[in-house]
Amino acid sequence: MDFRLGRDRGDDLKAFRAELREVLARYSTPEARSRAISTGTWLDWDLHREMAKRGWIGDDFPKELGGRGNDPVRMIAMREELDLSGAPWLGWIYARMIASSLRAAGSEQQKKEFIPRLLGGEMIACLGYTEPGCGSDVAAAATKARKLEGGNEWVIDGQKMFTTVAEVASYVFLLTRTDPSVPKHKGLTLFLVPLNSKGIEVREVKTLGGERTNVTFYKGVRVPDSSRVGEVNGGWKVMLAALAEERPGGGRDLKDKLLLATLESVLAAEGKLPDDPVLRESLARCAVENEVSSLLGYRAMWLFGQGKNAGVEGSMFKLFSSESLIRSSSMLLDAVGPLGLLREGEQGALAHGEVEHLYRHSHVETIYGGSSEIQRGIIAEHRLGLPKSR
Amino acid sequence: MDLNPTPEQTQVVGAFRRVLEGKSTPAHVRAAEKTGFDAALWREAVDMGIPFMGVPESGGGSGLGLLDIALLAEVYGEFIAPLPFIETNVAGRLLARAGEPGRALLEAVTGKGVIATVALTDTKASGKQRPIPAGAVAEVVIMLEGDKLLAVKGAAPGAALNNMGSGPLAFRSKDERGASTTVLAEGARARELHSRALDEWRTLTAAALEGLGRKAIAIGVEYARNRKAFGAPIGSYQGVAHPLADSATDLDGAQLLARSAAVAADEEDKGGGPKGNAGRFSVLASMALAFCAERAQRAAHVGLHVHGGYGFTLEYDIQMYVRRAKAWPLALDDPRKEYQRIAGMLFNQPGTMEKWIFG
Hints:
Order of helices and strands of chain B: HHHHHHEHEEEHEEHHHHH
Shape of chain B: globular
Largest sheet of chain A: 4 strands, mixed
Mean pLDDT of chain B: 94
CATH superfamily of the largest domain in chain A: Butyryl-CoA Dehydrogenase, subunit A, domain 3
CATH superfamily of the domain at 191-358 in chain B: Butyryl-CoA Dehydrogenase, subunit A, domain 3
Oligomer: heterodimer
Number of strands of chain A: 8
Distance between the termini of chain B: 15 Å
Structural class of chain A: alpha+beta
Radius of gyration of chain A: 22 Å
CATH architecture of the largest domain in chain A: Up-down Bundle
Strand content of chain B: 5-15%
Mean pLDDT of chain A: 92
Number of domains of chain A: 3
Number of helices of chain A: 12
Helix content of chain B: 55-70%
């Protein structure tokens, strides 16, 4: 067995990481951070375009789609460095997600038209899946798309929740109901809709972690049939195909940033590690859980890379990792004491308010991308063979 | 990255599993509850070389690495086998490392199936008598006394102290009647050898706890699939299913962590990486023990809890897992103390943690 992945897998990756760190550091300036914090938008176009120029958005995509065709293991290193950098890099993930979805289910025309632009840093798109009444039950979408008689056009009415980055995106990947008379999974259709279409309104929603998200409204929005992705009423299939393209797992992430930031502020304040066994145990517990979390994340990615279905393993990583961030950020915020409450920019704030910020941020991680309850359901059913529990 | 066991590993693990399926059934385990030791199973294990597979071939063993032994320890844990599997492997490897002074004893171990064990705490420093794992059945007890690593050969008392984990625990001392003592090493070398053996014990115990926890969850799942309440199998209720899913996740993580610790030991043996407390192996061994102890105990508890009141009766097997999940790591000390050791190794020097994360 060999547990080395990413971290110490040869010189190529080391050089790649060094390059990543050098570039990301340039965009993790206090100005860039305070801009992201004040707007809530974790996307810096200068950084996004620079990453695109270096081929990093589509590093593992095939060359004919505008990618670089590199070894997917580089994306693990990339994701780790992005998470640890603190740079406003969120565009990377949305550009990749939509490009993967189109790669899995788009028409040849759509692939040609959009994927190179997404990977080239020219545009990003947001996800219009869930709705105020849906939550995790995405297939319950009620936003209606109706085909105009005799025409080649659709009219869309409804609203979408948590359309993060819609304020800077030019398209929304929109899940709509096209047949309300059939079971919910069978009447869905997806469209790639320009956000500057008439009848779309983007309204800001502020969140506990400081990140901006949106609610978007669609009133009589008209789109040509060529905006449709996949078959009419085949939307669920498109979503499953897109999901299968998504690389499960992860590695070193915000929890490691949390540990390093806490350690840094403790050492800065005390000059050395205090003898306090409570503090020491808190830090060590975080280190242990981070080790487990990264192992679960690497395993899922490794299995996926072997062409295996890593759905359950991906769920295990998501569950453990997000629950662990909540435990660790709570424990370490307690450990640094009342100074830890001061936010970034405040005099005396510890480690640029990182621990305080991560504690607030942690709460969303057990919810988005499939809540912990959804992940436990998948594990119970598909790993343990228990009856479906909902 | 490659997480697949080799064909050889799969074969050895399969052979051990077949023996335990036949000879370490719940009935066998129950029959051995008083002594924590099944003589027939021990003889079969000795015939297969199981108790000293990790001893180098020059010492009469099979020369397997710690990862190979950890994979076997997982199965040992799954079957809660009444067998001093971890103790004999750790003691045999320690005797082999000690070289010439341990040679005759090692020959007795691998040649005649003499049982050897290691006292986990420095008998002088602790000042207290502590029960020694496999002390009730071991003829050879290796102990650190201050600056000296001693091998005490005496008569195994046979009778175990009545204890929660039903393990063959006994008090042993170099002063017991008829005992002969060999000095295996002195000074820094003695402490280094003992410390390495402890890290191996931590890793193998962690692996065994992972196997135990996995089985406890399997028992709970089986019950939850069949037991009906309010008109449906209880496993279809999220309140029952979700804690099982959490534990299944914990144990996958526990397995990866314990295996990665064992791999770090084998790499250290091949001459890679820093040794001693700054080494990867020591850190991972403590991490594995702390994590596996905590999560195996939770898994055993969850496995029992889904049984409702039946889980609390001695008639059901799950209680045997609950007791051992608590008892195995406690043979060393409070497993939470591992966190203090980890903190000392990773946080004292600025930059160590960063290096740990980024390589």
